[in-house]
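Archive entry. Fields below.
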Amino acid sequence: DAGVTQSPTHLIKTRGQQVTLRCSPISGHKSVSWYQQVLGQGPQFIFQYYEKEERGRGNFPDRFSARQFPNYSSELNVNALLLGDSALYLCASSSGRAGELFFGEGSRLTVL
Amino acid sequence: AQSVTQLGSHVSVSEGALVLLRCNYSSSVPPYLFWYVQYPNQGLQLLLKYTSAATLVKGINGFEAEFKKSETSFHLTKPSAHMSDAAEYFCAVASGNTPLVFGKGTRLSVIA
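PREDICTED_STRUCTURE:
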């Protein structure tokens, strides 16, 4: 079975632009979470969606938004990009069992 | 609020030596505890998890961890390090429906 897939794998944007990152969960998983991993740090929680509803939001500004589609795939949008948004964005899916997340390989965003 | 502290941002061991990566947690409710590994330019892979069953948990690749409530610790060990164990290791905590909270990570280097 395919794991969690994310696209694009790498992208470069300039300050002020907008970006959309995509994630397809493992088949049968209804929950998707997004994490931001800045170089040298652990992943920081951004959002969790379950059955298309937002179940949790981390301490990120309103420039960050996300949604989940009927097929359980998800998008993360970041508006008005700042240099500090440069990071690896990780998507994880789960079947609902507490905390056990399966991660994709991430989308590496560079903001110039 | 839950948190995780990983002692030592970088640990270096010789091939064949014991690996010990330290993790202490803070949680007001019984926690679920996890260790994830991240190889360069990849996502996170679950090594092992504690979910209130046996306190000694065995994971993949010969790793194990022991939950010690009295010490609020969940240290990761492996009797004999292999070159392929070189990676970044993250301890994480969750409880109930709370999102997974990661530590800052420990980079393991294995010297031939």
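CURATOR_NOTE: The first strand of chain B starts at residue 3 and ends at 7.
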